[in-house]
Amino acid sequence: QVQLVESGGGLVQPGGSLRLSCAASRSILSINRVGWYRQAPEKEREFVAIITDDGRRNYADSVKDRFTISIDNSKNTVYLEMNSLKAEDTAVYYCNAVYFGNYWGRGTQVTVSS
What we know:
Layout: E1 4-7, E2 10-12, E3 18-24, E4 33-39, E5 46-52, E6 57-59, E7 67-72, E8 77-82, E9 91-98, E10 102-104, E11 108-112
Parallel strand pairs: 2-11
Antiparallel strand pairs: 1-3, 3-8, 4-5, 4-9, 5-6, 7-8, 9-10, 9-11
């Protein structure tokens, strides 16, 4: 099993930045794939970014060139650096890990508003 705990969400103005963190209960190196998804009010959960066990990174078109996913193996933590935030980025952001199953954190709220 993998337990995931997200943090770092909050209220930010349009154009601002936030860094989300996802602490995993086991070594990231042992996990097949980790990533971030988000769910806006009254919308389906959608893919944001992933990083695979061979280091490949993929991003949703809507966040490409603005968001960066990274890993700190020493801390078993996955980060999502979010820049140039827009109102449409407002959502609950969830961390996901694939390791003999599909695991989710409880999410962290990101609100982009002036």
